[in-house]
Amino acid sequence: xxxxxxxxxxxxxxxxxxxxxxxxxxxxxxxxxxxxxxxxxxxxxxxxxxxxxxxxxxxxxxxxxxxxxxxxxxxxxxxxxxxxxxxxxxxxxxxxxxxxxxxxxxxxxxxxxxxxxxxxxxxxxxxxxxxxxxxxxxxxxxxxxxxxxxxxxxxxxxxxxxxxxxxxxx
Length: 170
Prior knowledge:
Blueprint: H1 2-18, E1 32-33, E2 46-50, E3 54-59, E4 73-76, E5 79-91, E6 94-97, E7 102-108, E8 113-122, E9 125-135, E10 140-148, E11 159-161
């Protein structure tokens, strides 16, 4: 329970410390424009940030929009976006990396900042991960996918399951 609280509170604390328009733990260079045309005011764009324990490999199949865990911030137009991700979990034994990537989708609202995170469903096992979006509109963490990385999969490979397979948060 304590570990789960750390996964939840750390991204929020980082956003409060550095502001919503800064790269949370990465380059602190601000938010990169990732939409066509002229600059738009903050009220007309959505901010997406790379969260903890995952790498963003592409946004809307644009492979130039990438970021390692906690090190990206992109200004996107509001609406549904596709995020290609791979889990990057560090622990005492080293770094666990998901070899096959997965796609999750989320609908972003203008004027809001979102961040996508991964956490193991069981702190003692890397058999399943929950991918969740910190959603400021709903004011909660929304599970978008569950990755199963159990014994039936080759080491480092996972398959995605529906969000309904996530454990209830307590």
